[in-house]
Fold:
Amino acid sequence: MALAERLPNVDLFLSAAGEEVLEIYKMPLDGLKPRFRVFRDKTASGVPVGMLYDDVYHTVVIAPATSNTVAKCAFGFSDSLPTNMFAQAGKLGIPGIVFACDTEPVVVTKSPHDWVTLRPRRIELENVERLRAIDFCRVVASAAELETALTERLNELSLAWNTSSS
Structure:
């Protein structure tokens, strides 16, 4: 979220699970709405996806992407707002950046209460590789890689990071 706050003109597209996780990490929606336009996964057809067809967006970022979301994107499922955005963006040639969580045989990550060590299964690692092969998709494996990918995309678009928090 700290990176999103530094990006110019960001909208958030949240799955139902994403909303739950934000609450767990003490980031309530009401606290995000002053800085971002927030779209919630409340329509069966993903109505906000239509903005991709109106040239409103130049990039789709899924961060963080759980193993569930990675698998859906890798196999072409688009049954949530983020996965639908990803699929439709790819069909339109709009670049996607996916910060996949399960990218290494051992992953140390922050849970709501402590740091935990995870050992992704072979299927999760295979799905990340499958996702890497998708057109218009860049997979990153850390916050630092995400920041680098976003910087490169901003440069391609002749845009810059916000330098103030307002």
